[in-house]
Structure formats: structure tokens, C-alpha cells
Amino acid sequence: MSRTYQAVHQVSRPIGPARAENFAFVEDELPPLTAGTVLVENVYLSVDPYMREAMDEGHWELNTPLEGRAIGRVIESRTPELAVGDLVFHRRAWRTHAVLTPAQLRPLPAIEGVPVSTHLSLLGGTGLSAYVGLTRVLRLQPGESVFISAAAGGVGTAAGQFARLLGAGRIVGSAGSAAKVAHLTERAGFDAAFDYHDGPVAELLRAAAPEGIDTFFDNVGGDHLEGALEVLRDHGRIAWCGAVAQYSTEPPAAPRNLYDVVGKSLRLEGFLVREHLDAQQELTDFLVPHLRSGRVRAHETVVAGFENVVTAFLSMLGGANIGKMLVQTADLG
Ligand code: NAP
Description:
The chain is α/β, with parallel strands linked by helices and 333 residues long. Helices cover 26% and strands 25% of the residues. The strands form three sheets. Strands 3, 4, 5, 6, 7, 14 and 15 form a seven-stranded mixed beta sheet that branches. α3 links the parallel β8 and β9 (171-175). Bound molecules: NADP nicotinamide-adenine-dinucleotide phosphate. NADP nicotinamide-adenine-dinucleotide phosphate binds at residues 48-50, 125-126, 129, 150, 152-156, 175-177, 180, 219-220, 241-245, 271-273, 316-317, 319, 321, 324-325.
């Protein structure tokens, strides 16, 4: 008996911001469940800024199911390695179901006191990016100040909370609305925050960090990098994690003061989380006690319904999320 599933395909390349018409929901037949495979129903899907870059020529193929990080539940199993009900992490997101082999997935341990969605936020690639950016790239030292851009997002709220646990001094964040600024200082543990729409980043940052900043965790690039270069103290460090300001547009002219890297003896280092997967266990050991105690919490915006996955992705790029943007496509059961 053939069975169908729903998947999202990219059907055209965007020029500028991505739009709903660049995608299509497609119903298709599932491949047969053969020996050694499982049928997984997706429960949580991750939508991420890098996916906007993946929509450009040379990345995602058109008219084929898209990839991304997902948590699913095994609903049929033809392998002794996995049982019905097991939760698994895999990369066949943007669809309701997937037929997978054990090599294509990672079983998720049940961690008491930790919600399952945390495996896509603080304990997933999002949290890992924040953790390695702070510990391996910035090498943040106790007492040092840190400025975090896109601070109210998934990586940003993780970085702010982890910086506190690592003993940071002043923690400053930037975000795109007054509500996000309030969230950062009232609920995410930031000492100060500003809305980057309120003026030049350098001015707003200097007001929030009058003594300058020792380190910068950059998720935005462009005007944020330029502003931070101006305010960083001599021998400051920058971990360049992302450049969300330019994923939908031509690269901005800023930073126009890149030569400050020399003048101030700064260190600017980019990184990709996929080169630091060996830090996953270290992150888990570091974080789980704090998740259990409630000292750290996963800030998430969870959109319900597979039919809303494209909307969730587009609205995340537009800043609608606080914390990690996830889509819940089925009950946990
Ligand atoms: P996120 O911050 O949860 O969501 C994206 C946010 O970007 C939006 O909420 C929006 O917030 C902000 N934004 C959009 N356009 C902007 C603009 N022009 N200027 C300033 N802010 C803008 O996403 P995330 O998953 O946590 O990712 C954050 C960054 O980390 C991204 O750059 C991503 O590519 C990067 N990243 C890198 C790695 C790596 O391996 N290096 C891994 C994961 C993520 P506002 O309302 O504040 O504008």
C-alpha cells in the first residue's frame, strides 16, 4: 500500500528577500519501508538563517524536498536498532515524514527535566554555535565584557546566558525592537540592550558600554561589525558567527573601518559550528545541570502546524522570533 507525505520544495530563486511563492507544498509517495529502515514522523523542524543563503544558485536544488534539522518520532520500525516511539534527530526537515536508516539519524536521549525541543535550540547546533563561539573562538575570560548582535534570536539568547555562566562582566545585546530589548534585560540576563533602529550602532553601543567592550559575538555583520570595531578596546576579540544583515541583499559597504583590526591589535575570527561537533558532549555536560536548576532556559518561538513552516521561516528572517524559531508539526505523543 502506498503512503503519502507532505514536503516543501523550493520552486524558484529569490532576488532579494525570500517570498512564499519561492516555495511549494508537495504531496508525494513515501519510499517503501524496507528491512533496516524506519518511518519517522517529524515533530519539530528548525528554520535557520543559513537557509536563505541555501536558496541562492548553487545550493538547494529546485523542486526537491528541502533539508534541515529535525526531531522526529519513529512510528514504524524494520530495524532492531530502533523501536516505535523513539525520538531521533535527523536532517530531513521541511517534510511531515521520512524513511531513514539508522546511519541517517541520531537517537535522542531522554534527559529528565529538559524539554525535547531543546535538542534543536540550546543543546542543538544553535546552542553549540554560541558555546564554541564564546569558549573556543573568543576564549571569553571571567570579568570580560561581551557585545552580542541579533541577541534576541536563538544563538543570541544562548550566547548571553552562556556568557553569564562563564563569568562574563558586562553583557550587552542588540535587537530589532523595543519588546526584544525588554526581553533581553528582563528575561535573558543581559545587563544592557538597544534597538539598532534607534541610531548608529557605535553610538548606541558606546552608551550601553561606556568603558568599551572586550569581545564581540557577531551574528549580523555590516553596520554591527563597523560599530563594534569602533567601540572595541585594544586587543579585543571578535567571533564572527553570522551575517544575517546580508543574506537577502548585496553585501553592505560596512564595515568601513576594518583597518581598526590593525590599529587596535584586534583578533577577528570566523567559525562554522560544523567544525566543532566534537564539543557537543562538553556542551551537554556544561548545560544540563543549569537547565535542570532553571538557571538557564531555552528561549524559543514555536509555530504550530506543518502548513506554517514557510511562514515561520520568512518571519524569522524578518525578526518575528524571540529565541530559536521552531515549527511543531506533530504532537510529541
Ligand atoms: P535568529 O537570530 O534566531 O534569527 C534571525 C534574526 O536576525 C531575526 O530574528 C532578526 O532579529 C535578525 N535580523 C534579520 N535581519 C537583520 C538585519 N538586517 N540586521 C540585524 N538583525 C537582523 O537566528 P539564529 O539561528 O540564532 O542565527 C543567528 C546568526 O548566527 C545568523 O547569522 C546565522 O547565520 C548564524 N549562525 C552561524 C552558525 C555558524 O556555524 N557560524 C551556526 C548557526 C547560526 P531582529 O528583530 O533583532 O532584527
